Amino acid sequence: MKLDDLVMEKSNSDKKSRKWIYDSGSTLLRSLNLPYLTFIGVGTAIGAAIFVVTGHAIESAGPAIILTYLLGAIFALAGGTSYAELASSMPSAGGGYHFVNRAFKGTPAFLAGWFGWMGNVVDCSVGAIAFSLSIWYYFRWIEPFSLAIITLIVFAIINFRGVKSLSRVETILTSILVIGVIFYIGDASLHADVTRLSPFFPYGILPAVLMISYIFPTFAGYETIATMSEEVKIAGKNVPRAIFLTILISAILFTGLTVVTLLSAPLEVYAGSPTPVQDVANYFMGPVGAFLIAICSITASLTTVNGAMATATRVSFSMSRDGLLPPFFEKIHAKYKIPYRTLILSLILSILLVLTRSINLIVYMVSLGYIVNSMLVGLSVIQLRRKEPHLFRPFKVPFYPFTTILAIATSAIMIPMLSTEALILGLVFAIIGLITIAITKRIKKR
């Protein structure tokens, strides 16, 4: 094949790709650069969960929770490469859902979108609850779940103001968060007692492995990056870079925070506490340390709410744009270029989840949404390599297909590790989704 023919074929492939994304005429504003995108990913990843789940995770696995986080980082890296390849070659507001829809269409696409949406809606709830618990730590007269609902409403307004407002808020909050976590790790290291790591496997290896599904959402910032890719400048270059920076920064901070928490205080200090890291900081730094972690937890909670709400809004918008949700939700605000109707819908669902008042159940629900989506995205990489071999791919999964197969296998293995309640609730949510798509098809026929 001549060089001119190769150039023409690549050009035609790019045109088809762009046409597939923008046919509906519902487009979003490209305004995110690499720093903004990385801050959104890191802010969503180092979210509220790390300050809420640490105590339960250590209680369940002991010091072996360090191994859990390291394995989680490896699994996240394997899954992140799939998102990097697809988001750089076909940037879309649907993120994982969009990739699966292009690869398979039908039921797999719907499940990817539905569970991806669910994961982010639930993540909003986790962030709002963690924020309210951090405030409640000092002001016990505040009803935390009511405050969580107010928080969700405030960040819905911020998201409504547009992607520039969202990214600026996320950058400021994430900067405060990272500085605070680094300070906590440094100070806690001075009070470390290595003997607390013995025995390393007090309950055996199995609990440490099973906890991977519990802590996995703390690495899911790369999914937010993929979902925001339609609003990124030079997505082919910036999206993969932001994904890998997010995973690297998150892994370092998560592992560091967990290690120093283990080493600087005995388990009884934070066992069963809804604010474990604050209790540990109070143990070796006094009220000043507890206040520092309260600021970090508050900031992390807000970055989670901000990023997850943006992602949930865009996934449901993309599903509506493709006819899998009623066309009513496809509307974009004329001034702020935001799919405000799906924003309102995601807000309502997040509020309903807060009203369940079950933190562990909500965390497992977040995991279920992200894990299902990650598995389907990995399968999409394989399918699209066969289906569209000439698609221009600015980034390709390294060591393909082994890396992709690892990502798919680890996702499939993690699903049975989730709590029974989360699996049952996920099944109920899937049934509601099938009813919704049936109603949508009937509306379209009329």
Helix and strand topology:
Blueprint: H1 3-22, H2 34-45, H3 49-61, H4 65-89, H5 96-103, H6 106-136, H7 144-160, H8 163-189, H9 205-210, H10 212-215, H11 221-227, H12 235-264, H13 276-285, H14 287-321, H15 340-354, H16 359-387, H17 402-414, H18 420-445
Report on the structure:
By secondary structure, this protein is mostly helical. The protein has a single domain, classed as Up-down Bundle (Amino acid/polyamine transporter I). 74% of the residues lie in helices and 0% in strands. Helix 13 packs antiparallel against helix 14. The N terminus is likely disordered.
In short:
The chain is mostly helical and 446 residues long. It has 18 helices and no strands.
Instruction: Give the oligomeric state of the chains in this entry, treating copies of one chain as homo and distinct chains as hetero.
Output: single chain
CATH superfamily: Amino acid/polyamine transporter I
Largest sheet: none
| Number of self-contained structural domains | 1
Structural class given helices, strands, pairing?
Answer: mainly alpha
CATH fold-level label: Amino acid/polyamine transporter I
